[in-house]
Design brief:
The chain has one domain: Fumarate Reductase Cytochrome B subunit, CATH 1.20.950.20. The protein is 68% helix and 3% strand. The protein contains nine helices and two strands, in the order H-H-E-H-H-H-H-H-H-H-E. The structure holds protoporphyrin IX containing FE (HEM).
């Protein structure tokens, strides 16, 4: 018969079977970004004030993430997940052979996608604020951005929004493929901040 003591989980095993990867700020950043992007996308041309304010929230989140990419925790830093283009290509090729290397933080393709998402979001919010400035509102009023031709900026804003949808589809597909390949739930990791420790890590 087992005693109560024997039924307790081994604290060492419990502690070492997962590892903290995403700090709370990265996780709050991610899910707030998902929420504000959804609000901004759905409210476009429908509820203007909601569209503009969710756009400002996205701009602030991107600004925060750039700073956190320099001074943040280990796997949040750009230096941890920006790889040479040749490494990204090698990683993508290795996906097809089913022998892709496991990374604790972002893998090389995931890292490149993060940079693409942040860059397009920065341009998207900048073009939106330029449009608002042309109409006399927002932080860019009175700057060079307010003088840009409205038709061109409007077109650019729309193209960038569509590009974001394209990237998001690729991002979510990448997350799912990587989760299946390495038998780990990356969505859960972005909620709890922890990933299972792989052999040899
Ligand atoms: C419901 C849909 C989404 C899911 C399930 C999802 C899931 C994830 C996961 C699991 C990661 C971590 C990937 C890894 O472990 O390497 C991640 C990272 C990221 N995702 Fe998403 N994502 C979603 C939507 C979005 C959207 C809509 C955006 C942009 C508007 C976005 C932008 C990002 C960014 C920028 C990162 C990097 C996080 C960081 O390092 O700060 N995601 N996402």
């Amino acid at each position: 018969m087992q005693t109560t003591l024997e039924k307790q989980p081994d604290p060492v095993v419990a502690e070492t079977s997962t590892v903290r990867v995403w700090d709370p700020l990265v996780r709050i950043f991610h899910w707030s970004l998902v929420a504000f992007f959804t609000i901004a996308y759905v409210s476009a041309e429908e509820i203007q004030f909601l569209h503009e304010w969710s756009g400002y929230a996205i701009a602030a989140l991107v600004g925060f993430r750039v700073i956190w990419g320099v001074i943040g925790t280990r796997h949040a830093r750009f230096i941890d997940f920006i790889y040479r283009p040749s490494t990204v290509i090698e990683y993508l090729k290795s996906l097809f052979s089913g022998r892709a290397k496991h990374y604790r933080g972002h893998n090389p393709a995931g890292g490149a996608m993060v940079i693409a998402l942040l860059s397009v979001l920065a341009l998207l919010t900048l073009s939106g604020m330029s449009l608002a400035a042309g109409e006399g509102s927002g932080p860019l009023v009175g700057t060079w951005f307010a003088t840009l031709p409205e038709g061109f900026i409007e077109e650019l804003h729309e193209v960038l929004a569509n590009l974001m949808i394209f990237l998001i589809v690729g991002h979510v597909a990448g997350v799912l493929v990587s989760s299946l390949l390495h038998r780990e739930n990356l969505v859960r990791a972005m909620i709890t901040g922890r990933k299972p420790v792989k052999e040899g890590e």
